[in-house]
Design a protein that fits this description.
Blueprint (H helix, E strand, L loop, with lengths): L8 E6 L3 H12 L5 E6 L2 H10 L8 E5 L7 H9 L9 E5 L4 H9 L3 E4 L7 H9 L4 H13 L1
Parallel strand pairs: 1-2, 1-3, 3-4, 4-5
Helix pairs in contact: 2-3
Amino acid sequence: MTKPLPTKSLVLYADDDLDDHELIRDAFSRYEHVIELVSFRDGQQLLDFLQDLDRERKPCLVIIDINMPKLDGKQTLRAIRNMADYEDLPVVLFSTSTMPKDAEYARRYHATFQTKPIHTGQIDPLIEKMLEHCADELKNRLDQNRKRG
């Protein structure tokens, strides 16, 4: 007998800025029926969570701020790429940086780089773009909800 799939897709978010946490939490609230957002204050907390996570509950997306205490986003991304089962996990480095070297770093580790929005009204299109990295199953459920709504 196979295990039933989780009813919600898992998205992980690591950032030390409380305002950004609130912004992301609010942006993801419209998806709470299909997405479980789990937030962390630094990269080490995120890595600890991934280590303990049931491999069958693999996240569909990880969003990481670059500048964090303890373990920054770049170090966290590199560590994720070295973890068994997470080499191809969709990751977005999400930062206030506009430096080309940060975008290049993300590409080198098979991640996407996204600059944080200046205005809160810009967050919804960014979240939509990030969710494009998730599995087709989630995208189909989101499309169905859009058609109903």
